[in-house]
Design goal:
Layout lengths: L5 E7 L5 E7 L7 H11 L3 E8 L11 E7 L3 E5 L2 E5 L9 H15 L6 E4 L6 H7 L4 E6 L2 H13 L5 E5 L2 H10 L6 E4 L8 H9 L4 E6 L2 H13 L2 E9 L9 E8 L1 H9 L1
Parallel strand pairs: 2-3, 7-8, 7-10, 8-9, 10-11
Antiparallel strand pairs: 1-2, 3-4, 5-6, 11-13, 12-13
Helix pairs in contact: 5-6
């Protein structure tokens, strides 16, 4: 069976279970019943099958319209001792072992003692948020993608995390609202897409005056740009660690700890 302008996306969960997403430019899937039968026959580890419609060209894998064809609607995947329900649109790290190293380093930079309030400004489905929640008093996750927030809430419930809150909002606008209501976070964590953070988010984060900013980046170029903006707002890189998430490729993730610069602290002391 061959379909023009199409590709296949796969997700792997615990125990090697697979979610298959057939992505086509056309609105219909020719021989749909046969696709279901053949995948069940040839790929016994498959437990979920979807059809996604992506008529646009470019580097966006999935389109806005999707249909569930067969099997489970989500996969269960574990990370850092937590379990997550993963849907076709969920962001979830593909290299589990390295992702755990990355998140452990982010937690080490956050330096949580148990009484802190933490904001996760690009929380997605809550992976980093729930890792933080194991050591913080309160974690607030913010994400502009509403389906991701719904997944985050489900994941928090599944892992019995009662010290988390998730909001579908633009972090650049929502964080100042929280600050005006009296919320002063001890730590802000940011893990944006390759395009990096908007200047609005960066200035909003610095404006809340956290003790530490932990920035997780999948693009060194946009991280360098954002770090420069944060420096202008009084935060400097104290330590940075690259993590090889995609071996034998040019891609690298970095996690950085940023704290208030000595000059800014001295100026505050003089005032």
């Amino acid at each position: 069976m061959c379909i023009r302008d199409s590709h296949v996306m796969g997700r792997v969960g615990d125990d090697g279970k697979v979610m298959v997403v057939l992505v086509t430019a056309s609105k219909t899937l020719p021989e749909e019943k046969r696709w279901i039968e053949e995948i069940q026959k040839e790929l016994p580890e498959a437990v979920s099958l979807w059809h996604n419609i992506q008529p646009k060209t470019g580097n966006t894998i999935l389109g806005a319209k999707i249909r569930h064809l067969w099997g489970r609607e989500t996969l269960t995947a574990s990370l850092c001792g937590l379990q997550f329900e993963v849907s076709p649109y969920s962001f979830f790290q593909v290299h589990k072992e390295q992702a755990e190293i990355l998140y452990e380093k982010a937690l080490a930079y956050a330096d949580l003692k148990g009484g802190e309030t933490v904001i996760d400004a690009y929380c997605g489905t809550g992976t980093i948020s729930l890792c933080l929640a194991k050591k913080a008093k309160r974690v607030i996750g913010i994400e502009i993608v509403k389906p991701a927030i719904e997944d985050a809430k489900k994941n928090a419930k599944m892992n019995h995390m009662e010290n988390t809150e998730f909001y579908a909002a633009d972090a650049g606008k929502f964080m100042p609202q929280l600050y005006r209501k009296g919320l002063v976070p001890d730590v802000i964590v940011m893990d944006p897409v390759r395009a990096g953070c908007s200047e609005e988010v960066l200035k909003a984060a610095a404006g809340m005056n956290p003790k530490r900013i932990v920035y997780v980046s999948c693009n060194p170029a946009t991280f360098a740009r954002d770090a420069k903006i944060l420096k202008s707002e009084g935060y400097e890189i104290k330590e940075i660690q690259p993590v090889d998430m995609f071996p034998q490729t040019m891609h690298v993730e970095t996690v950085a700890l940023m704290t208030k610069s000595t000059e800014v602290e001295c100026e505050k002391g003089l005032k």
